[in-house]
Amino acid sequence: MSGLRLVRVTRDYPVRDGVRPALQPIDLTVRPGEFLCIIGPSGCGKTTLLNVMAGLDRQHGGSLTRDNPDAVTSCMFQESRLLPWLNVRDNLAFVLDGPLRAQGDLIDEWLQRVGLEGHGRDYPHQLSVGMQQRVAVARAMIVRPDILLMDEPFSALDELTALKMRTEVLELCDELGATVVLVTHNPLEAVYLADRLVVMSGQPGGILQTMDLGHLGRPRDPDDPELWRVSRSAVSALTEAAARQPASG
Fold first, then answer.
1. Could you tell me the pTM of the whole model?
2. How would you list the strands of the sheet with 18-30, edge to edge?
3. Domain 4-72+145-243 top-level CATH class
């Protein structure tokens, strides 16, 4: 388990006539074991911020620190990003140390946990989008991450599949004690999952509002009217964020 701390984090991209700021100075602490969701208008820098947290973008200003410098970090994306020339078992083995044979029991365990028993020899093109995302969940979790970063991993799924996977990911993260940051465009999804919700505005992207959702308790019922009420507050914050967004063109 490890927390994250961002201090005065900025990101500028070079353009023909200078630089384009993508993030204004951001101060944010993600507590160990917290499930934090980030929402905001398209183009406000949510994915840029997540890439900074993941260490995929090191061209930022300010500082990023982890409570545990050796923390294991996993990422999930909107697309499963499976290696198409490898079958399911080999896709999972790819992120593990040691030969596939030595990891076979662990791979079998995670295929069972994500409901893909019997599909280990299948290739990504033989799986539905939902099944591919289940493989992505297993791949992210099999390394027992201290930090899990997710960029809209459920947005391409039908709602029934997405609801099931949200619950499964939440249970797995709780079991592993992982610190989670999820970027989503879905306020109701965010309210269902998060301990705390960050609303971004831009451009450049900045933190407009932070909402503590601890009063909703755990576990949460996705049909609870209180979740809907709180999500409408998040929508109001999003509307304010969009109003601050400069017109394009």
1. 0.91
2. 18-30, 4-15, 61-66
3. alpha beta
